[in-house]
Amino acid sequence: MTTHLLGRKTHRDGPDLSLGPDIDLPLARLHEACGAARRIFALWLAYRLEGPVFWISPRWLPEQLHPEGVVPFIEPERLILVKADKPEDLLACMEESLRAGHVPLVVADIPAPPSLTAVRRLHLAAETGAEATRAAPLGVILTPGEGGAMGVEARWRMEPRFDPDTPSWELTRLRARTAPVKRWKVSGLVQAPRFDPLPAPG
Q1: Which of 30, 120, 172, 184 has the fewest C-beta atoms lying within 10 Å of its C-beta?
Q2: Helix (H) or strand (E) holding 44
Q3: Between the CA of residue 149 and those of 12, 86, 129, 141, what are the distances in Å?
Q4: How far is it, in rounded angstroms, from Cα 161 to Cα 37?
Q5: What pLDDT score was predicted for residue 106?
Q6: Per-residue model confidence (pLDDT) at position 13
Q7: What does the pLDDT look like over 126-147, one tens digit per residue?
Q8: For the chain, percent helix, then strand, then coil, each to nearest 5?
Q9: Parallel, antiparallel, or unpaired: how do β-strands 194-198 and 53-58 relate?
Q10: What is the pLDDT of residue 36?
């Protein structure tokens, strides 16, 4: 398990977590993941980082992450499941976790995109955590449908892609501050993935 970091400059310009060629996620920032395989995308990120993973989700929804289901990606003991009783608790818990700066990856599985004000607060919390601990946390919100949170560092969509020979997905960078829209076919296991560029969405 390795952590891929580039040189640190400012929170918005490094360090980055790299998944593959041209697939870089700035740390100490908030990203959004949508699509049917958005939870797998978050687990790919968890594999590339070391340490505990906070996974925050609504207690009232039937869809819940099962620890045994993460075995192909990370050790289940790294996963700390946090159940929120009220909608407002989801982002409040994420904000406090990022601000503490002791957890490298904080994931919030939320039922709808947050407001711009909430996103700004989460960016600030991640930056505060990075300054306090010298370890830049990564924040990821998982949203249904096409997502749509305003102000996120980048929006990623991951969908299953049929391939009879190997597990495969389609990853799309829908929005980023400094990079264009781009698509990849991601195939293979998390330990040795292959990233093949696809034509840009029309």
Answers
A1: 120
A2: helix 38-48
A3: 18, 20, 22, 9
A4: 10
A5: 98
A6: 55
A7: 999 999 888 899 999 999 999 9
A8: 25, 30, 45
A9: unpaired
A10: 97
